[in-house]
Amino acid sequence: MIVLARPSPWHYLFSQNLDHVPSTAGPFSFYPRGRDALLAGLPLLGLSQGDVILVPAYICASITKPLQKMGYKVAFLDIESNLDFDSKKVLAAIAKYKVKAVLLVHFFGFPAAVKHIVEVCRPLGVKVIEDCCHSFLTSIDGVPVGSYGDAAIFSMRKTLPVPDGGALRFNHSVNEQSVLKNTLGEPQNAVRYFVSRALEGCIAVLGWPNIYSETVDNIRRKLQRGGKVEEQVSVVLPTIASKPLWHYLADECYLRETSRIIQGNYNQLVEACTAMGLISYIPKLPVGCTPQWAILEDHSGKLVSYLRRSGIGACRWPWHELPAEVAQDPLSYPISNMLNTRLALLPVHQSIGPYQLVRILSVLRRYVNSL
Ligand SMILES: Cc1ncc(COP(=O)(O)O)c(C=O)c1O
Fold this sequence. Notes:
The chain is α/β, with parallel strands linked by helices and about 375 residues long. It folds into 2 domains: about 20-180, Type I PLP-dependent aspartate aminotransferase-like (Major domain) (Aspartate Aminotransferase, domain 2, 3-Layer(aba) Sandwich); about 195-225 and about 240-370, Aspartate Aminotransferase, domain 1. It has helices at about 10-15, 35-45, 60-70, 85-95, 115-120, 175-180, 190-205, 215-225, 245-250, 250-275, 305-310, 325, 335-340, 355-370; strands spanning about 30, 50-55, 75, 100-105, 125-130, 140, 145, 150-155, 165-170, 295, 345. Helix 3 links the parallel strand 2 (about 50-55) and strand 3. The longest helix is centred in the C-terminal third of the chain and has 25 residues, at about 250-275. The protein is globular and about 55 Å long. Pyridoxal-5'-phosphate binds next to helix 2 and helix 3. Keywords: Pyridoxal phosphate.
């Protein structure tokens, strides 16, 4: 059996209620991806080409490269080992680089100390954009993440089995209608997505070929490099959410149950790992947190490749996508470089059931015994 890194869409395909379309998108305007939402939101927050955006150095190039290609300047700031920005360092960076906006990431579903950063930025007129791309189902003090800054971006396809789910929300002081009154773009074509997910599902059951093996990883990277050497970047119009995404967003029970399953998987996995002598990077789940992964410390740097060789969809982050500016300057960004090599991310998503948990734990036990 292969344990997939992302949830499967079977709940949607076998649902009785496919034609129900909710009448409201809630606070969101939808875009294909999170990065599209960010590029569309910046001008509405009053930013323009040449303005500086402060981003955590622990970030993926798929968010910084589009910003740079659109003419924004990106200033990097190392995060602390608790995955948070230090508000004093943020203040110093704002003064040093004349920062106009701060991108604050709620990493892996764990809520960042957003209130502190907003407190520092608001008096200076610096915009705070919450990056909720890993944390769509997380809340702080009962309020969903994305409600605290000036704006927030989402990438719901990282939490839900959908092909789209880039989304933008504003919390105040922006004429959002100027985006929404534009002609809506076409929603994503879900057919290709479902075909590839069905294929992935069959491979997971058969256990062959191992889509997480080094060989497949190398082929995938070569294809990506060959296929999209220079990705086009532009500001795109908001789209209508795809039908599967509407379906999930309208189903509050499903969303609540999804959080409950993920939290249960996290707690079971962390408890069993701790009993084996492995160390969870964040031992106790914060209240309201729906994590994207369980995070283990991997001091040998070998755990992720061991798990992937064994058919478990574990990974590092951002792995090969750490921006070159950060990867080439470990003295300025020691924590981001350390996190990129020393954290093993294990799947705990809503499609992980008892069989998958047993499989993950048996591979971990073999790993521990081999040390
Ligand atoms: C923290 C973070 N923000 C934003 C993005 C961009 O999301 P998308 O891939 O939907 O553009 C990613 C992508 O991996 C991410 O990890």
